[in-house]
Amino acid sequence: MHIHEFQEMMRYLYIHRDSDRGLKGTYDWLVEEVEELGEALKGEDNEATQREFADVIAWLASLANIVGIDLEKAAIEKYRNVCPKCEKAPCQCEF
Amino acid sequence: MHIHEFQEMMRYLYIHRDSDRGLKGTYDWLVEEVEELGEALKGEDNEATQREFADVIAWLASLANIVGIDLEKAAIEKYRNVCPKCEKAPCQCEF
Q1: Could you say which of B12, B41, B67 has the minimum Cβ distance to residue A41?
Q2: Distances from the Cα of B26 to the Cαs of A70, A92, B29, B66, B80, in angstroms?
Q3: How far from B35 is each of B26, B39, B87, CA to CA, in Å?
Q4: pLDDT tens digits, one per residue of A4-46
């Protein structure tokens, strides 16, 4: 599934709720989902961890819908098969 | 671009660094990127916000690479064109 398609599915399923909740409420929910992912990563339940990854990308897509940003376009524009910092593939940045 | 393809691009570009950094370091970096997205959302620079969305999905993909989870499979398994809670489309959950 394309990133854009996933975002459109989220729009169809949730835009009415996302709009009502608004930008700050949706961002706060994304933060909560990232925290839940962090908790799941400490355990050994791979299926639970998988569901938390799904929730994070879902809320990220919802947030992008609220502000009218195309997540796929954003991702491709920044990461064009090379590291955006060193412009090499694989990344050869020196840290 | 498929979610899976984006994750594979991240693997090609960054798996050597992600593996060295490890799970906790990569998760902490994801959290930082989410915070930077939050800051960008308070401003009016749409291009900067777009770049922060790109970074969050990139670090989420890197984190999924470290733990061997397919982000696209995770997303599709949980969100199958209906809300996973109420099983309706659009979502009709009562909160």
Answers
A1: B67
A2: 25, 17, 5, 9, 28
A3: 14, 6, 32
A4: 999 999 999 999 999 999 999 999 999 999 999 999 999 999 9
Instruction: Please name the residue that has the structure tokens 């989410």.
Output: B34
Out of A23, A49, A76, closest to residue B41 by CB: A23
- The answer to whether the Cβ–Cβ distance between B30 and A30 falls below 8 Å is no
Q: Answer yes or no: is the ipTM higher than 0.90.
A: yes
pTM check: above 0.80:
yes
CA distance A2 to chain B (A): 4
